[in-house]
Amino acid sequence: MTDAPLSADAADSPDTPRRGIRSYVLRAGRMGTGQQRALEELGPRFVLPFTGQPADWSAAFGREAPRVLEIGFGMGAATAQIAAARPDTDFIGIEVHTPGVGALLKRIGEEGLSNLRILQHDAVQVLEQMVAPDSLAGVHIFFPDPWHKKKHHKRRLIQAPLVALLASRLAPGGVLHCATDWQPYAEQMLEVLSAEPRLVNTADGYAPRPDYRPLTKFEARGLRLGHGVWDLLFRRR
Q1: Which end of the chain is more exposed for a tag (fewer CB within 10 A), N or C?
Q2: Which residues bind S-adenosyl-L-methionine (predicted)?
C-alpha cells in the first residue's frame, strides 16, 4: 500500500541475470531520522532476511495465524492501519525501498504492532522460495505502478505468470485483492485475473472497496479530483 503509486511495480532489470518479472524498480528516497532510528532499533526484530528457503512463519511471528502477504507497501501507513484493525491475522509486507521500510518500522514501534514482518527483497523470489504453496489467506497489491506508456505495459506487475504464482500460494478460499486508480490498468487486471483458472471473481467485475482497506492520502486526493479507483477481489477455488 502506498501514498503514491510507487512501489509494487515490475521491470526487467539489466543489473541482474535473473529473467522474468521483477516486482520493483529501485528509486531514490530520503531517510528521516525517525525512519533511520526505527531501522536500527526495530529492523533486527521485524525485518526478516531473504533466505531462499521455505520460511517458518509460525516461528517468525511466534504463533499460528492466518497470513496475508502484501507486495509494495510504500510508506506503510495503510498497511499498519490494516494490521492494527486485524490483530488475529499476521501480515508479511514486501518493500524494497528503504525509506518505506523505515517508515513502517516507525509505525510498528509507535503503535505496538506485533503482527507485521517485513522482507526487503524482490517479491517474486520471496513467493517462489520462501512461501509454501496453498499457505496464504490473502495477498494485497494496492496501487502498483501503472506504467502509463504503452511501450512500458510489459513492465506492469499484474501479468499472467505472477498471477499464476500468487494463485498457487493462496490457500483454497484465500483472496487476492488488487486496487488501482488507473482505469486502463484496472481493465488489464480484470482480464488477467479472470483468465487464471484457479481464481474466481467475488464480484460482477470490479468490487466495492472492502472496509478493511483504508483510503490513502493519495487516493483521497484523487477521489476529490474526480478520479476513479477500482478494487478487484478474486478468491482461490
Answers
A1: C
A2: 70, 95, 122, 145
204: annotated active-site residue: no
Catalytic residue, from 12, 145, 211, 231: name it. 145
Query: pLDDT by residue (tens digit) across 185-231?
Result: 999 999 999 999 999 999 999 999 999 999 877 788 888 888 899 99
pTM of the predicted structure, to 2 decimals: 0.87
List the binding residues for substrate: 149, 181, 216-219
DSSP assigned state of 102 = H
Residue 29, pLDDT > 50, answer: yes
Binding site for S-adenosyl-L-methionine: which residues? 70, 95, 122, 145
Rounded to an integer, the average pLDDT of 53-70 is: 98
Residue set of the binding site: 70, 95, 122, 145, 149, 181, 216-219
Distance CA 108, CA 82 (A): 12
Contact in structure between 104 and 95 (CB atoms under 8 Å): yes
Helix intervals (H) in the chain: 33-46, 57-61, 77-85, 98-111, 123-130, 160-169, 183-195, 217-224
Domain boundaries, the chain: 41-236
